[in-house]
Amino acid sequence: MNKNYSLDNLPQIAEDIIKNAQNKVLLFHGDMGVGKTTLIKEICKTLGVYDVAHSPTFSLVNEYQTNNNEIVYHFDFYRIEHEEEAYDIGVEDYLYSNNWCLIEWPENVKNLLPLDAVDIKISLLENDQRNIQIKTN
Residue 79: which residues within 8 A CB-CB, separation 6 or more? Predict the structure, then answer.
C-alpha cells in the first residue's frame, strides 16, 4: 500500500493497516514529528484499547488491553543505544507472543526483529499531508 493521507483520514488508514497486516508486528519508520505516535494511537483506538495510548519513550514499552481482552504492546526504541537494552527487557518474548507489537524506531533494534514484520514508512508532505508506504516482508 502506498497512499497519501491527512489527519482526517487516520481512522481509515488505521483500519486498513489492521485489516491488511499479515503479521501483528508493525514497524513504524519516519522522521521525528512525522506522526508515528499519532497513527499508533489511532490503531490502538481501532483495536479497542481502553486507555489513551502514549509514547513509551522512557519506559520502552507500554502495555494496553483491548475490549476483547487482547494485549497490545507499544514500543519506542528512540533512546536505545545498544540492542542489548531491548534484549534485557525481554523484547523477544513480546515479539513472539502473537499480540500486536507496534514499534517506533525499529531501526535501533533491527537485529532483534522478526523477518516477517510489517514495515510502515511515514513521510511528511506539504499541507499537513503524509505519505504512508506499507511493505510486508
Answer: 57, 58, 60
Burial of 82 (0-12, 13-18, 19+ CB in 10 A): exposed
57, 74 contact by CB (below 8 A): no
Encode 94-108: b = buried (16+ Cβ within 10 Å), e = exposed: bbeeebbbbbbbbeb
- What 3-state class would DSSP assign to 19? helix
Minimal CA–CA distance to 137: which of 60, 25, 3, 45? 25
For 97, residues 6+ apart whose C-beta sits below 8 A from its C-beta are 71, 73
Best CA proximity match to 107, nearest among 36, 41, 46, 44: 36
Does the pTM of the predicted model rise above 0.90?
A: yes
pLDDT at 137: 67
User: What is the distance between the alpha carbons of residues 114 and 98, in angstroms, rounded to a whole number?
Assistant: 12
Q: Which pLDDT does position 45 carry in this prediction?
A: 95
Domains, the chain, with CATH or none: 2-136 (3.40.50.300)
Contacts (Cβ under 8 Å, ≥6 apart) of 9 = none
